């Protein structure tokens, strides 16, 4: 029996990969609410100081996600979804 590694990585036929949600969703596990906030963070042990990772948050989970990242020293700032400006220091 022959195994085609490269072929296994390619989409088969005309099947398209499943589409994502129409609107950005909260990053909290199990939450599918529309996101309203970008929580920007980095892990200083593996990211350069300028690097920002982004989690999306709905209004209900914003504080929980900020708290989780803040307790680890990863949280940098939180801005409204769609904000394109430089990082602004916010609340932990």
Model description:
This is Acetone carboxylase. It comes from Kocuria turfanensis. The chain is an alpha+beta fold. The protein has a domain of 59 residues. Helices cover 16% and strands 17% of the residues. It is built from two helices and three strands; from the N terminus they run αββαβ. It has a three-stranded antiparallel β-sheet, with helices on one face. The longest helix is centred in the C-terminal third of the chain and has 10 residues.
Please supply descriptive tags for the structure shown above.
3 strands; extended; 92 residues; 17% strand; disordered C terminus; alpha+beta; 2 helices
Order of helices and strands: HEEHE
Distance between the termini: 56 Å
Radius of gyration over all CA atoms, rounded: 18 Å
Name the strands of the widest sheet in spatial order. Answer: 2-1-3
Shape: extended
The number of distinct β-strands equals 3
Strand content: 15-25%
Major sheet: 3 strands, antiparallel
Number of helices in the DSSP assignment:
2
Class inferred from helices and paired strands: alpha+beta
Unreliable runs: 88-92
Question: Residue share in helices?
Answer: 10-25%
What is the arithmetic mean of pLDDT? 84
């Amino acid at each position: 029996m022959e195994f085609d590694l490269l072929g296994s990585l390619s989409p088969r036929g005309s099947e398209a990969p499943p589409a994502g949600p129409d609107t950005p969703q909260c990053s909290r596990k199990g939450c599918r609410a529309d996101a309203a906030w970008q929580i920007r963070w980095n892990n200083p042990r593996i990211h350069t100081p300028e690097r920002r990772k982004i989690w999306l948050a709905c209004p209900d989970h914003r504080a929980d996600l900020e708290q989780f990242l803040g307790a680890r020293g990863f949280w940098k700032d939180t801005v409204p979804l769609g904000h394109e400006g430089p990082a602004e220091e916010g609340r932990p």
